[in-house]
Amino acid sequence: RLHRGRFVWPRSDREIFTLDTHEWQWLITGIDWQRLSAKPMGFVCG
């Protein structure tokens, strides 16, 4: 999305946002952070 000249940043009262290494990589590669799940995906084997 950055290559399209726009980026939607979540609104917050804080002026400084901290990103870890993974979040930075997601941001610069264009992964939609809003579609990421906070829960790890599990597998059922049987």
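The above is record 1. Record 2 follows with the same two-line structure.
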Amino acid sequence: MNGAHQPASRSYHDFLIESLKPAAESAAYLEVSLEEGDPDQILLALKHVAEAKIAIDPGFLVQGNWGQGGLDQGNLDNLLTPQDLAGVDRLIELLDAFGLQLRVIAKEPSSTNTVEDTSILDREKLVS
């Protein structure tokens, strides 16, 4: 070996965003973040899920779901702050005290299965 470092064919971030495209994968990723309870980690997970959704549907943020002004990639970081999650954190603590937990699940797909609606492990079966 000549000691030169070969760059990876794609970055971990790209892989992560690709793997979060199916709603079930996004839900599982968010659920783990909620269980860990770190507000910064939850915010990062929400941002990653938003990036995956934008990768599937670039018009997602400006389709009127975010109020009058819409939301774009530029102000995605301002969607939620750690202070916004304080109530969620308290809810998680309360549910835990009751022996319960908050879960995130994917909504039922409104159309037939597509590559984006399946897990990254099952995509090869659909594509081939």
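The chain has one domain: 12-127.
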